[in-house]
Design goal:
Mean pLDDT: 89
Low-confidence stretches: 2-16
Helix content: 25-40%
Distance between the termini: 30 Å
Strand content: 25-35%
Shape: globular
Structural class: alpha+beta
Strand order of the largest sheet: 1-2-3-4-5-7-6
Number of strands: 10
Oligomer: single chain
Largest sheet: 7 strands, mixed
Number of helices: 6
Order of helices and strands: EHHEEEHEHEEEHHEE
Amino acid sequence: MSTIDTANGETPAAGTEPSSPPSTIQIRELTVADEMVVLGDVFQQVWGSATEIIRLEMLMAISHAGGYVVGAFDMSRGHDDRGEILGASVGVLAVHHGQPALHSHVTGILAGARSTGLGRAMKLHQQQWALDRGIEWIVWTFDPLVQRNAWFNIAILGAEVHEYLPHFYGTMTDAINAGDDSDRLLMAWSTATNPDDAPRDGTTHLGQPGVTLIPTPDDIVTLRRTDLNEVARWRGSTRTALTEGLASGSQIVGFTRDGDYVVST
């Protein structure tokens, strides 16, 4: 999996998402099994999976162990005071660079609620949740070929790329990832980060010595359905460029609106 962060289509094209969702949206932690049942439906719809992405028993275990199990609800809709669910997020307690961390395992937003600012609001909720518990890092993975998620994670949130993970999840069979290697970038987001700071779109680095651009395909999700050979070409070239760059000590310092990683030595 991954999170806002994933190839779930959650984040819109660069620069198009509002800063906050409608006031009727409530993001809340879930601790009771009866409330968590709807989370499974969200994840299956987002990933187009016939099987459960994460079982109810596991959700309860994560919550009971102090982890992060959250739903986003439109309180103006639905048949009871719980509201109608629009998105969900699950994270487990972890350690990153020897410090307390929240590993955000899976986040999904239903199609009708995307491009509303909900994605950003859910990450800010996650950040505050971690801050309240003295957690210093939030980490997650995402497919490096999905432009909208790279833009959201790097340029909007200001998260850092800490590692390239080739074929991290092995063979995946859901409707989004099937037919492709499950390469992921590990993102690390300090809970001290202020997302309102200037976006890391790379413009301040362009043209400087030692700065290179690594392109990505316009729409890898659609490409998987039309040309797997082209997918493999993109996967191989991007994997080589990013792994060699990170291994040499280079850093990914931005992601452009044109879909390029900005890498600085």
